Structures are given as C-alpha cells and as structure tokens.
Amino acid sequence: MAGVRTTGTTPQHEAGANGDRGRTTIAGTVVAKIAGMAARDVSGVYALGAGMSRALGAVRERLTGATGGADQGVAVEVGERQAAVDLDVIVEYGVSIPDLATGVRRNVIGAVENMCGLEVTEVNIAVDDLHLPGDEAAEPQEARVR
Predict the structure, then answer these.
(1) What family is this protein classified in (predicted)?
(2) pTM (predicted TM-score)
(3) Quick check: 79 and 59 in contact, CB under 8 A?
(4) I need a labelling partner for 75 at 20 to 30 A (CA). Which of 31, 35, 86, 136 fits?
C-alpha cells in the first residue's frame, strides 16, 4: 500500500500559478503511482513492496481478482514544491544493485518532475528481497476444484 505523508496543510501539491485562470492540485497518491510506475520500468526490478504489503496484495488479488496497485511499495512525502519518495524493491538475481538503484532514481526523479512539476529531493530505496530463478514455481497454485 502506498504511504502518502504530506507536509504543510494539504495532502495535495498545487502546481503552476494560482491566478485568475484557476488552480491545479496533485494528490500525493498520484505522485506515488507515478513513482511506482517509473520504478517498475527499470530492468532488474522484479516487484515493489515489502513482504507484508506483497502478502496482503496477493490475498486481495485472490479474493477480488484485482491486481496490485501501482503505488504498492511506494511512500511519498509531498510538500508545496518538493517531494520525497521511499521505495521497497525486490531485485532480480544477478542484477547490480547499485546500478539498479541509480537507474530507479533517475527514472523516478524524471517522471515525477516532468509529470508533476515537483522537485524530487530524494529517492530512498530499500532492497527488501531478491527474486531467484524458479521462485514462481514455489508459489501456491490455485485450486483445481472450486
């Protein structure tokens, strides 16, 4: 699940000038989804989310058929002009973690700054797990009889 922490008085970022033509606000959940999608686009990222959030997501998926949210494993802190992003990442085996982290940071910063107009002050990455080849086979199979 996304953890959206905000500073200031509102959980939304006001982008652009607030003049006589109107006001634009960007919710923290939007920033979290953009960051999550940008992180997943990097080769070597298997998934986002720590063990517990992934387990809850898997249960939700089995019960409702809904797939995991774009903001799973992402927490953001959004201020008036800046944002900070925290990611929980599961890395594919064999990938250079420092190189992967550099690529994820570049992608997330570029996406959030381009799409939201917010300055990204930091992207903190916690590598929570390593995906090994053949791990999919160890996951429980869906029952054949309902």
Answers:
(1) Belongs to the asp23 family.
(2) 0.73
(3) no
(4) 136
